[in-house]
Specification:
The chain has a single domain, classed as 3-Layer(aba) Sandwich (Rossmann fold). The protein is globular, with a radius of gyration of 18 Å. About 40% of the residues lie in helices and about 15% in strands. The longest helix has 14 residues. It has about 300 residues and is of the alpha/beta class. About 5% of the residues have low confidence. The termini are far apart. α4 packs antiparallel against α8.
């Protein structure tokens, strides 16, 4: 069995390590980062995308923490969060698990910010768990693959997930010099800093983490979420990059039309990890939008 990431080994390089804590929920241990706490400060929850971890918020979270108490967690079977079963990796069950964590920790966010697949989780929380605040989606993964691909790609992910060699082979590729960096650029068209790249390399080298990402892909049901988009009644801002190699900006334009009143902002010249490339730019858009819907605390 592949070993989990070790907080005292791989975790030594994690950004904002001092903000990290570990929360037990039965067999589950969540890795959670909290920053900017102050009495009366509204809470904001950040939800990362498939294959990432809380490290992806390293530049953005401190900027948002000037106005909010910011809470971010490693998603189930990602990073340093452990104990979820493969059956927990569907979109509804992941959202339910996050909702349970927030209730247990008395976290009542006034807004949610998601990246990529984390945006789908934020909308699922709004649909199923009573979240009524605004949602900001960064390079959102909301549009199902067109036609038969909607069934084919999850089926391939399932086959890869059940093959115990695949996560090891995939992770083994990241041990070759520069391969993780090349893979990340090909996948996203983003160029990020050395600190973030070191974290992605640690994640990609770990078969348990890569298997968690495959499990998420295998169980993701965006077509069902698509059928419920008209039910979404919260304010939504979608921020998407013109050079996103993972999700074309045209898909974001289409998805924005499914949600009543949704707003789309396009960032020119950035890739799928725009919030890591240009955190100040993203923070400005987020704070401006949230300022229209919630009370911000001055820094």
């Amino acid at each position: 069995m592949s070993r989990a990431l070790d907080w005292n080994r791989e975790g030594r390089i994690w950004p904002h390590r001092e903000a990290s804590g570990f929360v037990r929920d039965g067999a589950i241990t969540w890795h959670v980062q909290r920053m900017g706490a102050r009495a009366g400060k509204p809470q904001l929850v950040l939800l990362h995308g498939t294959g990432a971890s809380v490290h992806s918020w390293r530049g953005l979270a401190p900027l948002l923490a000037e106005r909010f108490e910011v809470v971010a967690m490693d998603l189930p079977r990602h990073g340093f969060t452990t104990g979820h079963s493969p059956d927990d990796m569907s979109l509804p069950r992941m959202a339910a698990s996050i909702a349970r964590l927030l209730r247990a920790q008395a976290i009542a966010p006034v807004a949610l910010v998601g990246h990529s697949a984390g945006v789908a989780l934020a909308l699922q929380l709004a649909l199923d768990h009573g979240f009524a605040g605004p949602v900001v989606g960064l390079n959102s993964a909301l549009r199902p693959f067109p036609g038969p691909a909607a069934q084919i790609f999850p089926a391939i992910a399932k086959l890869l997930f059940v093959n115990p060699l695949v996560p090891r082979i995939f992770s083994g590729m990241a041990t070759f010099g520069g391969e993780a960096q090349r893979f990340l650029y090909r996948s996203t068209h983003s160029r990020i800093d050395a600190e973030g790249m070191a974290c992605y390399e640690a994640l990609l080298k770990n078969p348990r983490h890569t298997k968690g990402a495959l499990a998420m892909m295998a169980n993701w049901d965006l077509p069902t979420l698509r059928t419920r988009m008209a039910e979404i009644a919260v304010p939504v801002l979608l921020v998407h990059s013109s050079d996103d190699a993972a999700i074309p900006v045209e898909w974001a334009r289409e998805a924005s039309g499914w949600i009543q009143g949704a707003r789309l902002e396009v960032l020119e010249g950035l890739g799928h990890l725009a919030h890591e490339e240009a955190p100040e730019l993203c923070a400005g858009l987020i704070l401006d939008f949230l300022g229209e819907h919630v009370r911000l605390v001055s820094s």
